Amino acid sequence: MKNTAGVILFACLVVLSGMADAQTFPSRNIRFIGIATPGTASDIVGRAVAEPLSRQLGRAIVIDQRGGAGGTLAAGAVARAEPDGHTLLLTTSAQSGMKWLYPNLTFDPVKDVAGVAGLVELPSVLVVPPQRNWAQLKDLIAAAKAKPGALNFGSGGMGSGTHLSSEMVMLSAGISANHVPYKGTAEVLVEVVAGRLDWIYVPVAAAVPLIKDGRLKGLAVSSRARIAPLPDIPTMAEAGLPGGEYMFWIGLFAPRKTPRPIVEKLNEETLKAIALPELRDRFRGMGAEPFPIKPADLDAFLAADTEKMGQVVKAANIKPQ
Fold it and tell me: Helix 137-146 vs helix 161-173: angle between axes, to the nearest 10 degrees?
């Protein structure tokens, strides 16, 4: 009985300590450590959310992008950070592939982080150089089947959303191509515009300006319905490849041992920020939708998405790094 009472007392003290921490949180500026590079979809969304969230919390939010190594540099830095809520991971769908593509990591990309809040779900668009003269997705598929392994696609890094989404397209279409990873999607877009790469399957926000000015040709979007920024581009299902659908997500995570009251406070304030009409309108102009989700549900979502990406990695026979 004494041991049981001691455990209960300890648990109560931990909860009370967390509540006290939450009352004084934040006590200094907050840092979003991002897995991408400046100008990418997650960078744009992260900065958009940071502005109202900073006002609400009364502290500046610094965006620190640490792209490279499939996002594992940034994710590892946050997993090892002081669990006090002042260092958060600004991550994407790439988080779900880390476990499978980087098996020798010194941290667990699922178990060593705690979900704070979803930010947006963002459809992707498969874009190609206009000079290829591929009018439809079936034209790209036909070209790939005519010369297996001759085409090249780019991504923002091994295991990134822009990598795994293209793998899903190739599995569904029964084609093969060479993967050319870069540090970020901005560099890949330059290569596709120049015609040195054949395609990238990229979050809509990064490609809309290039499509509208004719420097890229969009063949299909990953959403179930056409999207407002690109109404003339068919969905993957309309293009004849429903298995190529892929929804890119962006969210915030904290070190696993961050006190739950602080996580809950961050979640509440973040959901309040993404619900603001001006932010909601801005997201929809990018083809994105707010992704409001509670911390425990985000943990479960990441675990399930990780298992799904594991199946893609195995089916595509992608070799771990």
Answer: 70
